[in-house]
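User: Good morning. I'm curious how alpha-D-glucopyranose would be positioned relative to this chain. Could you predict the structure with it bound?
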Amino acid sequence: MKKVRVSNGDSSWFSHDRFGLFIHWGLYALAARHEWVKQREEIPDEVYDIYFRHFNPDLYDPDLWAKTAAAAGMKYFVVTTKHHEGFCLWDSQYTDYKATRTPAGRDLLKPMVEAFRRQGLRVGFYHSLIDWHHPDFVIDDLHPLRNHPDRARLNKTRRQEKYAEYLHHQVRELLTNFGPVDIMWFDFSYPPGKHGRPSSWVGKGRQDWESEKLVKLVRSLQPKILLNDRLDWPEDWDIMTPEQYMPRDWPTVDGVPVVWEACHTFSGSWGYHRDEASWKSVEQLLTLLIEAVSKGGNFLLNVGPTARGEFDERALARLEGIGQWMRRHSRAIYGCTQAPDEFKPPPDCRLTYNPETNCLYVHILAWPFRHLHLDGYGKKVAYAQLLHDASEVKIIRDQKKPDDITLELPVLRPNVAVAVVELFLR
Ligand code: GLC
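Assistant: Good morning! Here's the predicted structure, ligand included:
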């Protein structure tokens, strides 16, 4: 088994469970055209305020959300307590820019946490480091007011350290008032001179968030918590979080594989987007999950609920399809990781491996005609079956080439999103 970089939080459950739900929910759900709408369209507070005054999620049913996630096979969830727009889903004592002061009139986070816990899911908080509403957050090159003619004057009264204090206060609240929190997911740092940005670029990083102090606070309040890697504080994090792409190989730091999680959207934006048409299919989404696990990682799949408080029908259809597959195939996901190096995946296949049960899973992305050649597997495989119905897959052995075997598959591709062969190893 691969030796993985040690994390400070408890990552054993995380690396077992593999599959989580990301939820992006905030005022941008009303605009319904990307969670960065305030930034993209350079909308000033007075104008953006219209969403605050109309936020009324009358159909919000956290139990239904939690049941939907559980039925899809998800084992944890990560919700935006606050996104870059600055709006808070919980009843924070440090701001009035929160759900309780909108027509919603109540804390939306607490019942969500409780509902997901009831369904057996672990709890994660996404919290935006960026805040486009707070009056002390210094206007930088990402801010909605970045092109404001009076930017310099507006910045004169802004005190970033006061914002940092607010940030720390709110994190303390989140990690004190909601019971055990399993994941803290901060987003994000953009220091000048990094990630291809010029050094003249005005961004933000560890000094602006006081990251070192913030990490200490998090660790002291919730010692087991898993912390992601976006605080611009390389000394201490647990989870690497590649976003909207699939790493080629298991990501490493100094050559050592890390605990990691790929996060992806259904369609492109994270917040509810009414008009986006680029929705991935169930098969594509499952392929992302399988591929992440085949490289020792997790998959965090995002839903952007509507401003009425529902998962829209496109999201529901996909979650339902994923759930159907997971019901029969979760054995190839939970507790699984990258296959030992001695097994090379055949063309158009991905491998996952459960070290406890010593089973290897061949996920067949393109169905071949009858024969799947497994070179080098010959002496290692005791029995093979299709996972969805436990029907035997014949193993063809050739005495002249004892190291290689061929699986004899049915001509018809099984009617599942991705067919999987379960190999019981010797
Ligand atoms: C980003 C975006 C964002 C999203 C997030 C998820 O960095 O700013 O809108 O919340 O990544 O990973």
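The first strand starts at residue 19 and ends at 23. The chain is about 25% helix and 20% strand.
Let me know if you'd like a different ligand tried.
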